[in-house]
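Q: What does the assembly look like in three dimensions?
Context provided by user:
Components: two
Sequences:
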Amino acid sequence: QQQVKQSPQSLIVQKGGIPIINCAYENTAFDYFPWYQQFPGKGPALLIAIRPDVSEKKEGRFTISFNKSAKQFSLHIMDSQPGDSATYFCAASMRSGSRLTFGEGTQLTVNP
Amino acid sequence: EAQVTQNPRYLITVTGKKLTVTCSQNMNHEYMSWYRQDPGLGLRQIYYSMNVEVTDKGDVPEGYKVSRKEKRNFPLILESPSPNQTSLYFCASSFGTSSYNEQFFGPGTRLTVL
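A: Here is the predicted structure of the complete assembly.
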């Protein structure tokens, strides 16, 4: 049972486009929502994270939008670059510990 | 350099032959965890450890064992590997057990069980 559902599975955009990756969760006890970025042959690395007391968080070209009532959150990448081509995972965890529940992942390709 | 290391990076073995994948971190982190990554399923937690001698099952613990005798090491043991354990494995660590602590991942171990 996947507690965090992620879509789309893959995404191809042109350089400069704005890819959007969506995630939905079921457990209302989740209170921390990070996004991890994974390049081929590497382990995932934290990209950006949000807590449910805010609706948006921006770091550089990356923005998380969070909708608590809908139990959904999304990652937007502004002015995407070929170097952003990677697999992106959304995740969620509860206040009680560091256990992360990951989404299925989205393979993003940004064409030059 | 602060890092999580895993060995081996690649392993091909046969059904039933016991193996151990090592994980070590040099950041004095309390929390360590093992995940497996499979296409279309994302990362699923196998086992985690909140501190030395404290381990607990994650979402997919069947067929795996772990131990945490030292703070820096968290080996993953497959006593009798089967083909359905063919996967990409990641070890991760974080400073504390709060949900807001960033998890640092190792480079991964690609395991094939024939």
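Follow-up: Chain B has no helices and eleven strands.
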